[in-house]
Design goal:
Blueprint lengths: L1 E10 L3 E5 L2 E13 L5 E9 L2 H5 L6 E14 L2 E16 L3 H11 L9
Antiparallel strand pairs: 1-3, 1-5, 2-3, 3-4, 5-6
Length: 116
């Protein structure tokens, strides 16, 4: 399990999937946080089941504490990873310059060349 303090950049729409136990809801949240070297990082996390209700209370720029797990699965010879929220709680409402800059970049459709 990993723990970070982050700021919410975006809460994505709820997705539904039919599974073995009925309809399940999932929702992604994009956050930004500083690592141990003071570098800003963005991370998209998936909230499932009861965690979706926790996201209803969040909005852009909210500061949150997140406990999450990273899991990988192999499918047809390829590996896929997912960061899943175990717990998310709102700390306080703040707006950093970094969040504003990243948000404007996302809204403008500009992509980071590092990810191409």
């Amino acid at each position: 399990m990993f723990k970070i303090n982050a700021e919410v950049l975006r809460v994505f729409p709820i997705k539904k999937a039919n599974g073995q136990f009925g309809v399940t809801k999932f929702q992604d949240v994009l956050v930004t946080f500083k690592d141990d070297n003071d570098n800003w990082n963005e991370l998209c996390l998936t909230c499932g089941h009861e965690r979706v209700n926790d996201l209803e209370k969040l909005k852009m720029d909210d500061e949150v504490d997140i406990d999450f797990a990273i899991r990988s699965k192999e499918y047809n010879g390829k590996w896929y990873s997912n960061a899943t929220v175990l717990k998310i709680s709102k700390k306080k409402n703040s707006r950093s310059k970094k969040v504003k800059a990243v948000t404007e970049t996302i809204d403008a459709g500009i992509t980071d060349p590092e990810f191409k």
